[in-house]
Amino acid sequence: MKSVPHLSALILSLCGLGSSAWAQPAAANPLLPAPQAIGMILPEETAPGFTQPSREMRRPQVRGGYFESIATAAPRRWQSVAGWGEQPATFTKADLGLRASLGVQTTLLGTDNINFERLGQRRAETLLETSALIKVSLGDSQGWIPGIGSNLSGNHLQLLYVPTLFQQLGDGRSITAHHFLGEWGHTTATWRSLLRVDYDQRLLISSENTSPEDNFTMLDASLMGESKINPKNTLRAKGTLRRIELPNGLSARNHWIGEMVWFYELSPKTRFGPGAELGFVDFEQGQLGHQNYQQAQLWGEWRPTEKLSFSSTLGLETRAIRSGAQSDHLRRLVGQWFMSWQASDKTRLSLRARLNQDPSVIAQGATARTLRVGPEFQHEFSEHFYSTFDATLMRRRYLGLDQPRLDIEPLCRLAMGWRAQQDRRLNRTNLELFYQWHHRDRSDDPADDRFRTQAGLQLTHQF
Predict the structure, then answer these.
(1) What percent of the chain has pLDDT over 70?
(2) What is the C-alpha separation between 66 and 34, in angstroms, rounded?
(3) Which residue has the higher pLDDT, 93 or 452?
(4) Dihedral of the CA atoms 38, 41, 42, 43 (nearest 10)?
(5) Residue 46 pLDDT exceeds 80
(6) What SS3 class is residue 448?
(7) pLDDT for 250-269, tens place per residue?
(8) What pLDDT score does 72 carry?
(9) What is the rounded distance in angstroms from the CA atom of residue 375 to the CA atom of residue 462?
(10) Distance of alpha carbon 180 from the chain centroid
């Protein structure tokens, strides 16, 4: 695969940057943003007020806001095996904040439409997924957050590798997919920087409720810097290089993205400010041309209570699309919204929404304008039993096609779970029974509507 050489180079670069003095102490950072402002990549802590059992929830406790929208993206395979809350560790060296952990996850599921095909081409299948977890943390990724960090290291490094073997028991086929996530960060009292590398293979056949539009291989490298100019003003900038490759080889492309936002702290509970984003999309196939866009944004974060928080980004995007001799200009609203409410010690509700436009995966050369909205509900019945429910409604309008096309995609996942008592080493076992439902309604071709259900059992053990 073409991305592999680039991935190797980025990993080597990441490790080189992480070779500084990890034991460097850092004082508490009162000038840095409030905890709710940032959603970290590999969450190690949970939102204030949650009881200890809640740290075992299947989904991460997202704080809303910035660094890659976990809250609004489709659920990803590695999230359910990576572990958060109180992280098990097979090896720990406290003076350096060094932890290494291992885990394994096995999922057995049955589906009535393994490849999400149209009526008449549906094929039932039984699928066995086996994922291994290898995670290493050096330093404290959240030491910069006052009141949360414990090791308070000036530098941190996190590496996560999750390979997954998919075996189709009916026809004997198998395939291995990989996920790698690396993050290096440096923090001072007034400055924070993050370098992140993310490689992910998203497969439609998996137990992820993945839409065909999200079925691709991604290599993402980003660098973010944040400066606290004074106690009320923060300036943040981020640059991203993203490579997208598709199973059929069509519409492979590169994204270059630059972002900047200025935050003003109106009060300890409220921040807002203007931002801007510039992007360029270059397709590998010359006939698909290229795209460039500019966004003027308004960011806002509000936490009225310890149990309720809101974050949003609203922007106006101007996108120039050039394909061969044709060109077009689109001006549309874009944005992200996230709400989190901890209704009680055992119940949590979040609501997420995202409005954006990107090159389409399944409609070659078109731009898909997508509204994605849905709730996520988590409840604990006891120390051992819990339930989760999340749903998403996606509405996609395809621009640039000869015939108008509108797709409606509702999907949901319901799960009942049991988790064993942690032992002294924080080893733990989690068993989850789940049901998923996914539908796609296509306006221009009703015969191409798709429907799929999946039901299965998932066992996770972290050593």
Answers:
(1) 73
(2) 12
(3) 452
(4) 20
(5) no
(6) helix
(7) 678 999 999 999 999 999 89
(8) 39
(9) 28
(10) 13
Rounded alpha-carbon distances, angstroms, from residue 282 to 62, 86, 220, 285: 32, 42, 15, 9
Which residue shows structure tokens 């439902």?
Answer: 437
CB-based contact 136:100 (threshold 8 Å): yes
440 CB-near residues (< 8 Å, 6+ apart): 116, 211, 212, 407, 408, 409, 449, 450, 451
Q: What is the pLDDT of residues 176-188, one digit of tens each?
A: 999 998 999 988 8
Q: Which of 387, 396, 450 is nearest to 414 (CA)?
A: 387
- Residue 57, pLDDT above cutoff 60: no
Here the tokens at position 266 are 């109106």
CA distances from 279 to 167, 170, 226 (A): 38, 44, 20
Say if residue 400's pLDDT is above 90. Answer: no
Cβ–Cβ under 8 Å, residues 374 and 391 = yes
Tokens of 352: 């997420």
C-alpha distances (whole Å) from 331 to each of 262, 276, 296 are: 23, 15, 11
- Give the integer Cα–Cα distance in Å for 89 and 239: 33
Token pair recorded at residue 7: 């991935």
Q: Which residues, including other chains, have CB under 8 Å from residue 65's CB and lie 6 or more apart?
A: 36, 37, 38, 39, 301, 311, 338
Query: How many CB atoms are located within 10 Å of the residue 51 CB?
Result: 12
Q: Quote the longest CA-to-CA distance of the chain.
A: 67
Kindly provide the b/e burial profile for residues 108-121, where b requires at least 16 CB atoms within 10 angstroms of the residue's own CB.
bbbbebbebeeeee
Structure tokens at 418: 């049991």
Q: How far apart are CA 51 and CA 437, in angstroms?
A: 31
Confidence of residue 42 (pLDDT cuts 50, 70, 90): very low
The residues, any chain, with a CB within 8 Å of residue 35's CB and separated by 6 or more, are 48, 63, 145, 146, 147, 148
Q: Angle at CA 423, nearest 5°, toward 421 and 425?
A: 140
- Alpha carbon distance 285, 74 (integer Å): 27
pLDDT band, residue 332 (cuts 50/70/90):
very high
Report CA-CA distances (Å) from 201 to 2, 218, 235, 334.
13, 6, 33, 26
Residue-level length of the chain: 463
Kindly state the tokens that stand for 345: 């010690």
d(CA 386, CA 384): 7
Contacts of 361 (CB under 8 A, 6+ apart): 212, 213, 214, 215, 216, 246, 251
The mean pLDDT value for 11-32 works out to 34
